[in-house]
Amino acid sequence: MSRVSQVGLEEAEGETARLYEAATQMLGRVPHSFRVLGNVPLLGRMLLLFNATMQREGAGSVLSCKIKEMAVIKTSQINSCDY
User: Fold this and answer.
1) Both ends of the chain: CA-CA distance in Å?
2) Distance of CA 34 to the CA centre of its chain
3) Cα→Cα distances 12→21, 31, 46, 60, Å
4) Helix (H, G, I), strand (E, B), or coil: what is residue 63?
5) Dihedral sign (CA 42, 43, 44, 45)
6) pLDDT band at 40, cuts 50/70/90?
7) Closest Cα partner for 35 from 51, 55, 49, 19?
8) What is the pLDDT, as a whole number, of residue 2?
């Protein structure tokens, strides 16, 4: 099975580097999903705003932050992903 490669933090240039800077400012880090989106930084910029909004309580999301975090952890466990 082939996989989409991640763009490393140290090899990011141009739009990808700017995406990583914005992700760090908004999320406090560059998640692995955004390192994959570094291959298509335009899509990453669009999803960054959506992701940041949905993770915050009262910013357009109906669920509490606690419930959202529980869903992330459970999904990671079901898919045998380290979280």
Assistant:
1) 22
2) 5
3) 10, 14, 18, 31
4) coil
5) positive
6) very high
7) 19
8) 65
pTM: 0.70
**Which residue has better confidence, 77 or 61?**
77
Q: Sign of torsion, CA 50 51 53 54? A: positive
Confidence category of residue 35, pLDDT binned at 50, 70, 90 = very high
19, 38 in Cβ contact below 8 A? yes
Coil, strand or helix at 25: helix
Spatial distance between the Cα atoms of 64 and 23, rounded to a whole number of angstroms:
22
3-state secondary structure of 1: coil
